[in-house]
Structure formats: structure tokens, C-alpha cells
């Protein structure tokens, strides 16, 4: 595989393993994207996708419900049985990259620009990136991406999408939060997030008319959540005893 040895990329990729971006995406958020793409006329059942940040498969799995096939890769092995390759999306793919219609991902925030640019090199139709809504800000991203390759779709979530580092949590299942000042030593709280997220979608010509569309993703978490989406709650997030703590 040919490697991209640019100084900027290599400097950012030399990190200890425990520092890698590990914020699993709730499956319902990926289904919301797929429904939006179908609404815009894309027959995903006849298309192939690449998920280059597959993590534990929480995005690749739902993509497989809509796309004809999904190629899943990541720079690390998080234990997802459907992972096709352990490889760095930015430096390990050249002529042997899979041929896909869409690249769909939740990229590392600090490398989101590079991941989107790389996705546009490989995707035949387009790229969809799950990002913090603030990603649309910033002079570098404007100069190197948005001013020359505007998004076709900007889709912020109306309801919060709760992402937690290293674990996928059901927002309807309370978790134990240690609080030294609390009389019980902690309390049960439902997982929440103060961060807003959006899907940004780039569509390549000639399938794109050149206009950017802003489309809010209406509340859909309950409708798009499926049994088995969430893993069992980790022991350290379980209350020592639940009676009287909620």
C-alpha cells in the first residue's frame, strides 16, 4: 500500500494507542442518515459503502441494513467481527482501496478535514461525515474544504446524540456517576451530552446541483432504535444498589 508521508498527517498520527478517537456512534443516528439519503433519491440497496473508522461496528452494522455491502476498516482492532482491514485511512490506501459509492464515517475531530478529503478521493458518489455541529466553523476548514467543496446537505440533529468515550450508552438507561459530595457517594443519571452533532454530506458532480441544502433531522431516536443496539452496561457504570437512588 502506498503511504501518505506528509508532515502534517504523520505528526498527528504518532499518538499512543489510548489517545485514539473512541466515541462510538449510536446506531439510530446512522439510520437517520440512511433514511435522509433515501429521501433524496439514493437507492442504497444498489450501492456500496466504506466505513473507515469502524470502531466496534456501531455504524458499520446499521449501514449494512441499507447498503448493498459495507467495507469496514480502522487503524485499530476494537474487536468488531465484521472488520475487513486494520489500516490507517489517511496513509495506507492507494490502488488497492475498495471501490465504493459512499464513504460514511465518524472521523477523529482533529483529523476530520483530512478524512473528508480522503473520502472524496475514494467515493464515487459522496461522503457523509458525522461531526460536531461546530465543525462548520474554522478558517482552515473553510479555505481547504468548504470554500472549494461545499456540502450538498447539512443535517443537524434536533435531539441530542449522546456520545461517550469508549462506550456506547442507551440514553434511556441510567448510569452510576460517582459524586463524593453526594450522601450515597453518587447517583443514577441518564446519559446526556452538551454537544450538538450533524451529518455533513458531500455529493460529487454530476449528481449534485451545486446548491447546499440545510435539513434538520427531526426527532427519530425512539423510532430508529432496534433491540440489541446497545451492549450491556459496564460494571463500573452500574449502581451498587438501585433502590432509592433515582
How would you characterize this protein structure?
The longest helix is centred in the N-terminal third of the chain and has 13 residues. The protein has a single domain, classed as Rossmann fold, CATH 3.40.50. It has 6 helices and 10 strands, in the order H-H-E-H-E-E-E-H-E-H-E-E-E-E-E-H. The protein is 19% helix and 20% strand. Strands 3-2-1-4-5-9-6-10 form an 8-stranded mixed beta sheet. The N terminus and C terminus are likely disordered. Helix 3 links the parallel strand 1 and strand 2. It is an alpha/beta fold and 246 residues long. The chain starts with 6 loop residues before the first helix and ends in a 22-residue tail after the last helix.
What are the SSEs and their pairings?
Elements: H1 7-13, H2 27-39, E1 48-51, H3 60-63, E2 69-74, E3 85-86, E4 100-105, H4 112-122, E5 123-132, H5 139-146, E6 153-156, E7 175-178, E8 186-189, E9 197-203, E10 213-214, H6 221-224
Parallel strand pairs: 1-2, 1-4, 2-3, 4-5, 6-10
Antiparallel strand pairs: 5-9, 6-9, 7-8
